[in-house]
Amino acid sequence: MKLIDCHSHLNDFSDTEIPQILKRATQSGVVAIVTVGTTIESSEKAINLSKKYDQVFPGVGIHPNELNNSFSKETANRILELASLDEVIMISEIGLDFMENSPDRAIQYKAFRRQIGIARELSLPIVFHCREAYQDSVRVLKEERAFEVGGAMHYFQGDETTANQLIDLGFYISLGRPLIRILDLQKVALNIPINRILLETDSFPQPFKKYRENWTEPRHTLDVANEIGRIKDIDVGEVAKITSDNALRMLENAAMLKAHFESVSHHSKT
Ligand SMILES: [Zn+2]
């Protein structure tokens, strides 16, 4: 089995933990892990990790919740500079977050639109965050012609209408562990075609959990694959194959990822 975790924040874990996290991921059949920044600094760290570990591939971007009263020209230029590096395979994490205490919406729109522009300039897909802003996101994706580069809505928890709007625009639906506990989301997953689904963990350190072993890690990509198999009554090996094909299709310009994926043997102990 060869799984791809399409969205994680591996860069937020401590350097001493990362080798063990990667080992556990490998043991669970996860052969490639996308790790994305949320600030300039964490985007730089994601790139550095990708240089150190073969199975790690970076995305760069400014997360809507990390916008502090501005999205400056300097910030945009630095993201453009980082995104231009050979290693970088996507613009992420960007998006809109309209929760009550989130940053000013006008600044969020500005940052989201500008970073979609960078993605288009460099022909990189976008993997984006969306909370309480489904129709607003779909509208921006259309207005900024984001469908020309494609990508995915990550950690999807929307309804079927939203999923279909995104799919009609050519985007993928990236599912994480909430699928295992949210019945409404399971119904959505049942009704959307598997060739539009990606797997992810959105893993980051979770010290608020009582036990370290309960922290979400890239290895849990396997749990999400198992859940999709259960919902759609498909063998998990088939789920792995189809969702990895989907990710490779989305990341069609990511030659290093493709080469790495192909070089990894099927016969890993899973
Ligand atoms: Zn994330």
Q: What would you give as the CATH superfamily?
A: Metal-dependent hydrolases
Helix content: 40-55%
The largest sheet has its strands arranged as: 1-2-3-4-5-6-7-8
Give the N-to-C terminal Cα separation.
Answer: 7 Å
Report Rg: 17 Å
Largest sheet: 8 strands, parallel
Q: Give the ordered list of helices and strands.
A: EHEHEHEHEHEHEHHEHHH
Integer average pLDDT: 96
Low-confidence parts: none
Summing up helix and strand content along with how strands pair, one would put the structural category as alpha/beta
Count of spatially separate domains? 1
What CATH architecture do you see? Alpha-Beta Barrel
Shape: globular
CATH topology: TIM Barrel
**Number of helical regions:** 11
Query: Which CATH C-level class is it?
Result: Alpha Beta
Strand element count? 8
- Which ions, cofactors or small ligands are bound in this entry? zinc ion
User: Strand content of the residues, in percent?
Assistant: 15-25%
